[in-house]
Amino acid sequence: MNMTRTTLLAVLLALPSAAALSQHQHAHTASPYAGLEKRTVNALSDQQVADLRAGRGMGYALAAELNGYPGPSHVLELRERLGLTEAQRHRIQELLDAMKAETIPIGERLIAQESALDRQFSERTVTAAGLTDATAAIGATQATLRAAHLRYHLATVGILTPEQVRRYGGLRGYVRDE
Fold first, then answer.
1. For 76-87, how does the pLDDT look when each residue is reduced to its tens digit (9 = 90+)?
2. What's the confidence (pLDDT) of residue 3?
3. I need a labelling partner for 70 at 20 to 30 A (CA). Which of 30, 93, 95, 138 fits?
4. CB atoms near residue 131 (< 10 Å)
5. Quick one: which of 109, 126, 108 has its CA closest to 117?
6. What pLDDT score does 46 carry?
7. pLDDT digits over 157-172, tens only?
8. Handedness of CA 9, 14, 20, 26 (dihedral sign)
9. Percentage of the chain exceeding pLDDT 90
10. 74 vs 170: CA distance, rounded Å
11. CA atoms of 55 and 105, how far apart (whole Å)
12. How many Cβ atoms sit within 10 Å of the Cβ of residue 57?
């Protein structure tokens, strides 16, 4: 009986502490965005910034990639398994070099535009008109970047044989119902 009273007393004394802890934890539930405010550019992950600076596709060309239009970078990675001729390898390398020369400056422009928008918010200088202009410019840059990547997928498929395109899809793990 004495032990039951001691246990009951301990539980009753612990209840206010448990309730307070629960309220504290609930009041400080972190947003899924917590920590993102420490990024160099809040709207872009460090990986996205690196990809933009390297001219990587970042999924901008998925419409092409997943519909049988390989990109030059992945074709070169798979060149031996695709059986590229030396002439094909050379032409696709030229495409990749041209793609990077075109897309890296566009990526840098996108990073600068996102940084400027971020700065307008952090400095509390953003206006409705400025916001409209900034987001329109960002959208136009994203469209330009996407079109560039898609164009190089279109050019790449013109260099490959139909069999290489089919093999590419298989090597990349794409299964299409035909």
1. 999 999 999 999
2. 53
3. 138
4. 13
5. 126
6. 94
7. 999 999 999 999 999 9
8. negative
9. 74
10. 13
11. 8
12. 23
pLDDT in tens, 26-60: 556 788 888 777 788 889 999 999 999 999 999 99
Write down the residue that tokens 């206010």 correspond to.
Answer: 16
In this prediction the pTM is 0.80
Q: Give Cα separations from 84 to 20, 106, 155 (angstroms).
A: 67, 30, 15
Residue tagged 């079109």 (tokens): 147
- Three state DSSP letters for the chain: CHHHHHHHHHHHHHHHHHHHHHHHHHHCCCCCCCCHHHCCECCECHHHHHHHHHCCCCCCCHHHHCCCCCCHHHHHHCHHHHCCCHHHHHHHHHHHHHHHHHHHHHHHHHHHHHHHHHHHHHCCCCCHHHHHHHHHHHHHHHHHHHHHHHHHHHHHHCCCCHHHHHHHHHHCCCCCCC
Strand partners, 41: 44
| Residue listed under structure tokens 């970078």 | 73
